[in-house]
Fold:
Amino acid sequence: MRLFIIGGIQKTTLVDFPSKIASIVFTQGCNFRCGYCHNPEIHDFKHESKYKTEEFIEFLKTRKGKLDGVVITGGEPTLQSGLYDFIKQIKYLGFAVKLDTNGSNFNIIKKLINDNLLDYVAMDIKASFDKYDKIIGVHCNIENIKKSISLIINSNVDYEFRTTVLKHQLSFDDFEKIGKVLQGAKRYYLQKFVSSNILDKNLINAQNYTDNELQKICINLKKYINCVDYR
Structure:
């Protein structure tokens, strides 16, 4: 049996899927342990789905003409064995699909892109490669991250890359390294750290870069990436 464990649903969003009105599905479980994760309640697999997939599909049928798409986020959606079939059902109904992912499951992302099941991909870049394991709290296969980046940049799917920024974790030099890795990408966003409801409570008082500092980082990265901004 292929599992798709839903940890939560947001019925409407105007900001999470560029240029579209969408619903958000939060999947349960993640293979990273980023301290700044703002969805700690769905980080671990509990194998208890708050919503049945059939219920969500029935909800979508009532929103034809009112919603444009569905954002699938987490947790890490590519851990769900039923992800492919779930997206196929959404696409069959005529909705666009945006996938949020950490890029660790390259083969799954590749299959979804090759089978034309994704309309937008947002991939998190956690750090410069030499700091990845430290930031995510587990060992990561960096080769899969590299392959996912290359796949997304060279695909026909619209996309963005993004990094959550804590000043003590990532330096100006780290962003220089990230810029070189993402050279030629369409979009890259720096996301300000929000300290409420996070996985590691020791980070509650972690310092953000100032807007002026973030602007300087963005200006520098534009030599590598077409569109760079912070939010």
